[in-house]
Write a structure and sequence with these properties.
The protein is of the alpha+beta class and 273 residues long. The protein is built from 5 helices and 16 strands.
Length: 273
């Protein structure tokens, strides 16, 4: 079986997990049981298992915002996989020495767009051909977890799959905003528990715009703020959030409720050029 061929790593590598499985069902526990059996000395960090079901964009944001905080040789596994059991690929993206593993459904797009180091991509799909029984509906446990353990123990992606052009991986429009001199069209990637609406705009990508407004959906003027406290309580603004992306916020209120926004909504911002 291919996963037994990895050379043991000189030190335990950290494994990060992102899924939309929640914690009510046994799915996350079964994935972590496989990791514990196959890579017992490798720490496992739960980034989030509360991705909205099937929400690849939200998972992509969690991944892009989180992987840089892991040790440099970490393996980050993201399984939000509406196409499980189909011919969709399994891919790995090596950014520096960190390895991101996910289904090829656009989940890696935001991380690759904002990558700070050289990216190498690999088609890891033949991992499904391992001679044990594989569920057609739960590759997270039967394919992705053994694969992550194999990498955490020193396996190299080039020894498992063919290298591919990162540009050939699936992408979606939510990973690529459209910015002109005085307008930006973007998408809501995530709404946090405070109601802040995280956009697919990198921090700093608009400079310091003046007379900023949300024109679609109609929302009116937005302050461009450095911190929440820079906005009077109840007032809206756009600021650089802690996750490296711009977010629409209302000081001590929910911006999502204020503007009727949901994840995936398209936003148009305008300012004086």
């Amino acid at each position: 079986m291919i996963f037994t061929a990895a050379k043991k790593a000189t030190k335990p590598r950290t494994i990060g997990l992102i899924t939309d499985f929640g914690l009510t069902d046994p799915y996350v526990g079964q994935m972590k049981a496989v990791l514990a059996k196959k890579a017992p000395h490798c720490p496992v960090v739960d980034i989030s298992h509360n991705v909205e079901p099937f929400n690849v964009a939200q998972a992509g944001f969690f991944l892009a915002a989180s992987y840089v905080h892991f040790p440099e040789d970490a393996v980050i596994l993201a399984v939000v996989d509406p196409g499980v059991g189909t011919s969709r690929k399994i891919v790995g993206a090596q950014i520096g020495d960190r390895l991101l593993v996910a289904p090829d459904n656009g989940l890696l797009g935001l991380a690759l767009k904002n990558a700070w180091a050289e990216v190498r991509a690999f088609d890891l799909s033949r991992a499904v051909d391992a001679p044990k029984k594989v569920s057609h509906t739960f590759h997270g446990r039967d394919v992705f977890s053994p694969l992550a353990a194999w990498f955490a123990l020193g396996g190299r992606p080039e020894n498992l799959g063919e290298e591919m052009d990162p540009a050939d991986m699936v992408t979606h429009n939510w990973s690529e905003p459209h910015i002109s001199d005085d307008r930006a069209r973007c998408h809501v990637l995530h709404i946090d528990r405070f109601g802040n609406c995280v956009l697919n705009l990198e921090a700093g990508s608009l400079g310091t715009p003046s007379n900023l407004a949300m024109v679609s959906p109609s929302g009116g003027p937005l302050a461009y703020a450095t911190r929440y406290a820079d906005m009077p309580e109840g007032d809206p603004g756009l600021l650089e959030g802690s996750q490296g992306f711009l977010e629409i916020a209302v000081n001590q209120r929910s911006a999502a409720k204020r503007f009727g926004l949901s994840m995936g909504d398209e936003i148009e911002l305008a300012w004086e050029g």
